Amino acid sequence: MNLEWRTNKDLWAGLMYIGTGALGMWIARDYPFGSALRMGPGYFPTVLGGIMVAMGIYVLVLGLRKDHEKIQGNWSIRALIVLPISMVVFGFLMEEAGFIPAMAALIPISAAAGRDFKWLEVVPLTIALTIACAAGFIFALGLPYPLIKGMWGY
Amino acid sequence: MELFNNLIFGFSVALSWQNLWFCFIGVFLGTLIGVLPGIGPLATIAMLLPITFNVPPVAALIMLAGIYYGAQYGGSTTAILVNLPGETAAVVTCIDGYQMARQGRAGPALAIAAVGSFFAGTVCTLIIALFGPPLAELALKFGAPEYSSLMLMGLVAAAVLAHGDMVKSLAMVAMGLLLGIIGTDVNSGMARYSFGIPELTDGIGFIVIAVGVFPVGEIVSNLGETEHRMVFTSKVTGLMPTKEDLKVSFWPIVRGTSIGAFFGVLPGTGPAIASFSSYMVEKKMAKDPSRFGKGAIEGVAGPESANNADAQCKFIPTLTLGIPASAVMALMLGALTIQGIAPGPQVMTQKPDLFWGLVASMWIGNLMLLVLNLPLIGLWVSLLKVPYRLLFPAIMAFSCIGIYSVNNSSFELYLTAIFGLIGFMWMRLECPPAPMLLGFVLGPLMEENIRRALLISRGDPTVFVTRPISLGFVIATVLIIIVMLAPAVKARRAAITG
């Protein structure tokens, strides 16, 4: 079985455009379309979605040619999973625990997305960045975030 | 000579110790924060807006203007050093500026950006003083059809300048326009593509998409590679541009300034159109266009001048018509209103000290920018010597704080994480994200203007080609496509037959 299609760049790009455009048109069915004179909220999205599907078909055809291009570069599954998690944890802790816990979680977690993670580097980096950002953003710029929720009157 | 009297009056206002001091603080803070990755001029100004409330109106506006071009320059600095565009205009600077940094030429790239910005600033100060009132009258004649055609031209230009397949780039513009639709429709008040999530009825923030697709996507992508990013940091030598660099950059700076000044006067167009257009022009004028995207200094000099010229000339429609020419200008007008001044044509006659003081302070601010930044380039470049494994958590920290500070919402962080993954996918599929970003920013404006144009013409689509100015933009759009197609056709033919 030929598994070459899995790295076919334009095949995937074309499918992505067609999928996005079609999804856009499908959802926009529920919006009043109107006419060219009085465009409803559905007019612009439907036309755009149609244009995207058309361009997606063109790109898909590019991918079906014999000399189609391959997807370049490596994947770091680790980074793909760990980096988004670090942002979600940061957002959650900013609301629930305050600035210092959020930073203290964000920096080590995001650093763990890299290949060479050394506690000896990450701990000083976390401390230094937390202090620097607290000084710059909270004290100098006056962003209204509690350092630690529930402490110092917050 | 009324011009000189006005300028002398302006300088007498701007050169007071108090105004000089606020100008300096503005430029310094603007640059400092603009350099922080993921925080563009808009976020910077929004963040610093409250500190200007207790300052007299003239000083407050001078300071805000200083923050604006300081942040703009700071944004170019991060674009060049770490490939993080703080705002759309800097996306263009990323293309060649970042490549120059990779080749160890971060110093010259930064210096040429500063010199170009100063030149543009000087010229535009004169332009505002000389042509301010008449130019504003010309821009007044623009109706919805003209805006629509102009935006179409900007979007097409943005798509075809990105390298790679043109259809893929145009599809990315459509993607951006579609993303821009998310939120509440201005005309009908209907929430579109909000999937029942209340946060989405306000639309997706520009910073969310920009930070998600560029820094976060880039980090994900870099972590898959083996430390190739480290290579260029060891090769940073020679901070100053060579004589050759200056010679090559001279005309791009002049052309960039003219393009920026032209687009600057048109309300509604962001500096992105100016810098994208300047990049297009330079790419076309170059003897060897293939150097573009691989570290051509003209690709930094032209757009950087254009973007500064545009930033400055945006004050013409803002101050003379009271129309916010860009999102940043909307903040400026907000500051004016808080100071108790109604924006509009009467500002120039009723508050001459405000208008002419601001004009003069722009030149002073640009001089400060040059004096402040050329010696500090060493500091920015030294940031690159930090190993990537220490730098990327710092970029993540700045990005996350930046996003969170816009609306104090953790939801936007979750969205950014999603756009990081989407951005990575786009990068791997070689779907250029820069045109998408422009489409996203212009989308809502464009839809509104097309709707309005067709409403005025009673649904007749020929309105875009029967009005002369609009027709000009349409012809320019078609020309751009034809011109850009020709070499591609040639290259493809050569590849097949050769």
Walkthrough of the structure:
The complex is a heterodimer of chains A (154) and B (498). By secondary structure, chain A is an all-alpha fold. Chain A folds into two domains: 4-64; 77-140, no CATH class. Chain A is built from five helices and no strands. The model of chain A has no long low-confidence stretch (mean pLDDT 86). Chain B has a two-stranded antiparallel sheet. By secondary structure, chain B is mainly α. Chain B has helices spanning 2-14, 17-35, 41-48, 57-82, 88-102, 106-140, 144-161, 166-181, 206-224, 243-265, 271-285, 298-313, 315-321, 327-338, 346-350, 352-382, 388-407, 410-428, 433-456, 463-466, 468-497; strands spanning 183-184, 191-192. Residues 227-235 and 492-498 of chain B have low confidence and may be disordered. Chain B has one domain. Chain B is globular, with a radius of gyration of 22 Å. In chain B, helix 8 packs across helix 19 (433-456). Chain B contains 21 helices and two strands. The longest helix of chain B has 35 residues, at 106-140. At the A-B interface, helix 1, helix 2, helix 3, helix 4 and helix 5 of A face helix 8, helix 9, helix 17, helix 18 and helix 19 of B.
Break the fold down into its secondary structure elements and pairings:
The complex is a heterodimer of chains A (154) and B (498).
Chain A: H1 9-28, H2 43-64, H3 77-96, H4 99-111, H5 119-140
Helix pairs in contact in A: 1-2, 3-4, 4-5
Chain B: H1 2-14, H2 17-35, H3 41-48, H4 57-82, H5 88-102, H6 106-140, H7 144-161, H8 166-181, E1 183-184, E2 191-192, H9 206-224, H10 243-265, H11 271-285, H12 298-313, H13 315-321, H14 327-338, H15 346-350, H16 352-382, H17 388-407, H18 410-428, H19 433-456, H20 463-466, H21 468-497
Antiparallel strand pairs in B: 1-2
Helix pairs in contact in B: 1-16, 2-4, 2-16, 3-4, 4-5, 4-6, 4-12, 4-14, 4-16, 5-6, 5-11, 5-12, 6-10, 6-12, 6-13, 6-16, 7-8, 7-11, 7-19, 7-21, 8-19, 9-17, 9-18, 9-19, 10-11, 10-12, 11-12, 17-18
